[in-house]
Amino acid sequence: MNYEIIDHPKYKYRLVDSIEHELLVKLPYSHLLYTPYISINDGCITIKEGYAWDGPSGPTIDTTDFLKGSLIHDALYQLMREKYLPGHYRKLADKELEKICIKQGMPKWRVWYVYYGVRWFGWYAVR
User: Fold this and answer.
1) Within a 13 Å sphere around the CA of 31, how many CA atoms are in the beta-carbon half?
2) Is 73:121 a contact under the CB 8 Å cutoff?
3) Quick check: 17 pLDDT over 90?
4) Residue 33's domain spans which residues?
5) Count of domains in the chain?
6) Between the CA of residue 81 and those of 5, 28, 84, 104, 113, what are the distances in Å?
7) Residues whose CB falls within 8 Å of the CB of residue 77, separated by 6 or more in sequence, listed in order
8) Buried b vs exposed e over 27-40: b needs ≥16 C-beta within 10 Å?
9) What is the value of pTM for the model shown?
10) How many Å is the Cα radius of gyration of the chain?
11) pLDDT per residue as tens digits for the range 92-112
């Protein structure tokens, strides 16, 4: 995953290259979904070059084992905020973050902290 750090009041990172990620948690969403920067097609999310996100949120630090998860999670939350996906998909987005962090090698205690942080406080970011 290639990204750059940017100087922006809302975002910290911007993708340099588009990425495709097969969703580890399958969304019960059977339609194709396309926006200018994010698309979902048959269980695969594509996030296009130029997409900006704020990285890991809350009382945490940005580490390499967290950046990809924060990117996918932020994109899924954005789709819910913009009503492309129903808000009740939040738990699935949170599980996706958890699975990506595990796959990226994040320590289990921190995965627990991250997962329950978004479960307890993520509702605010979806509004």
Assistant:
1) 5
2) no
3) yes
4) 3-126
5) 1
6) 24, 18, 8, 26, 24
7) 90, 93, 122, 125, 126
8) bebeeeeeeebbbb
9) 0.89
10) 14
11) 999 999 999 999 999 999 999
